Amino acid sequence: MKGGGLRIYALLYLLFLYAPILLLPLFAFNSGTIVAFPLKGFTTQWFSDMYGTAALRQALANSLIIAVSAAILATCLGIFAARASTRYKFPFKGGIMGLIMLPLVLPEIIVSVSLLVVLLGIGIPLSIFTVILGHVLICMPYAIAILSTAFNSLDKSLEEAAYDLGETRASAFRLVILPLVMPGIISSLLMSFTISLDEFIIAFFLSGNQPTLPTYIFSQLRFPKQIPMILALGTVLVALSIVLLTIAEYFRRRGNARTGAKSTGGLV
């Protein structure tokens, strides 16, 4: 009886969690302009309207530039921070890592307002560049958490063997360590890209007159006629997320096969 109740609870929870996502394509292909049952008919008009909207294409381009840049920068900085925290001992190590991880627990509204005041105070105009800076700040803790796990699971004897065979620290890091932690690097890139693409508050404060996709969507929610197009956009983003997760899982399995590690159930 207890097991049956737990299954029912799990099913209801999954239904509550994923039902809105499942309804996205249903209403995205609905010819009616009102998001309600019964459905009117099948149409692809909203997707055509989406691709024909210049402002949306520009917002999407801005978001992709920001997300790719933030993912690469946060992951590169995260590699150095994770490597230092897991391999070396240095003064004030705990305090320094705590400061780096602080954006993980700080409310984003506080981070956004603080960045806005500082950037305007030193004379930096609001643009895509300022949004990238903000997104790198909030993506780095996630990147470090993922990469620290990857570096911690690394067999140190492999690195020592590379030194014994004549490799320098730089060449051992490039030829031995990086390939072994590549699944963690890919996971970090994916996580940072997803967080940046989805982030709204920092982009709202720091984007200036260059809106990102979330801020554009927020501005269009005031117009009921734009809702079907936004649902079509959401359907495309869900499909893109599935593709990215599939690619990341492929590289994770490839990395496990290379190092001989056991599979742990895929990306979460």
UniProtKB/TrEMBL annotation:
The keyword Cytoplasm does not apply. The chain crosses the membrane at residues 12-39, 59-82, 94-122, 128-154, 175-206, 226-248. SUPFAM superfamilies: MetI-like (SSF161098). It is a multi-pass membrane protein. CDD domains: TM_PBP2. Its main location: membrane. Keywords: Cell membrane, Membrane, Transmembrane, Transmembrane helix, Transport. Pfam families: BPD_transp_1. InterPro entries: Bact_Polyamine_Transport, MetI-like, MetI-like_sf. The keyword Chloroplast does not apply. It is found in: Cell membrane. It comes from the Bacteria. Residues 60-248 form the ABC transmembrane type-1 domain. PROSITE patterns: ABC_TM1. PANTHER family: PUTRESCINE TRANSPORT SYSTEM PERMEASE PROTEIN POTI (PTHR43848:SF2). Belongs to the binding-protein-dependent transport system permease family. CysTW subfamily. This is ABC transporter permease. It comes from Paracoccus pacificus.
